[in-house]
Write a structure and sequence with these properties.
Elements lengths: L16 E6 L1 H10 L1 E6 L13 H11 L3 H10 L3 E8 L5 H7 L6 E6 H7 L9 E4 L1 E3 L17 E3 L7 E7 L10 E5 L2 H4 L2 E4 L5 H13 L5 E4 L9
Parallel strand pairs: 6-7, 10-11
Antiparallel strand pairs: 1-3, 1-4, 2-3, 2-9, 3-8, 4-10, 5-8
Organism: Flavobacterium sediminis
Protein name: DUF2971 domain-containing protein
Length: 233
């Protein structure tokens, strides 16, 4: 269930369009299970995920001199935070297709922040928060640590192109042991507004996606990628 946290910045409105780019197997798993996968924060490719900038780390080390458990907590906490990443953009992103799909196959889910909030189900055993990622210089900028979610809402400036919105949960109090991540209940029809098929995919693949969605009983609008438009001379 979505909970608003006053400490977590989300300047975008509920009408802001967000995207998730993924391969067909992950998409089908989402439809069949009606669950959204959230990755354990320390399993992301970015090794800085959930860590602090240098100025913040120096401040934390001072505190930890008299309280060693303080630093240990932040180190282990990464294993208890799970994240689902979304890309905020009014339009499709060529870069996101390149990064998150392979072999000219894949899909993009188009949603909005409001739809994502609505889709998160109350029967989930822990709370979900939504926040935007701040992109900073990890050598110079300070990351606040008065909220335990803050380390997971900052990334290096090199990742600015991601324009990331995150669904984020802390399972520390739920006695949950997670491996690579976990799945949470979602209302699929609320979550998904449209589906876009990879712009370079072949016709057989497009037909396969359409048939699979229909056979599973969903009636999402399935769009041809804007990047696939024919050149007009």
């Amino acid at each position: 269930m979505y909970i608003e946290n006053p400490n977590i910045k989300l300047s975008d409105t509920d009408s802001t369009i967000v995207w998730k780019y993924l391969d067909l197997s992950k998409f089908l798993d989402m439809l069949l299970s009606e669950k959204l996968f959230m990755s354990r924060s320390d399993k992301f490719e970015d090794q800085y995920e959930g860590t602090f900038s240098e100025p913040t780390f120096e401040e934390i080390k001072k505190i930890a001199e008299n309280n060693p458990k303080f630093l240990d907590y932040y180190k282990s906490h990464r294993e208890k935070v799970v994240i689902s990443s979304w890309h905020a953009n009014e339009y499709e992103s060529f870069a996101m297709w390149q990064i998150f799909t392979k072999n000219n196959e894949g899909l993009a889910i188009q949603s909005t922040i409001g739809r994502v909030k609505e889709a998160l189900q109350p029967e989930n055993h822990f709370e979900q928060f939504i926040g935007e990622v701040n992109y900073i210089d990890y050598k110079k900028d300070f990351i606040p640590f008065d909220d335990t979610f803050f380390p997971f809402l900052f990334k290096r400036k090199s990742f600015q192109y991601e324009k990331e919105i995150r669904i984020i949960s802390d399972v520390s109090q739920n006695n949950v042991i997670i491996d690579n991540g976990l799945k949470i209940n979602v209302d699929i029809n609320s979550l998904i507004e449209k589906i876009y098929i990879h712009p370079k995919s072949e016709n057989w693949y497009k037909k396969l996606v359409i048939e699979l969605v229909e056979k599973l009983g969903f009636d999402f609008t399935i769009e041809k990628s804007d990047l696939e438009s024919e050149i007009l001379i």
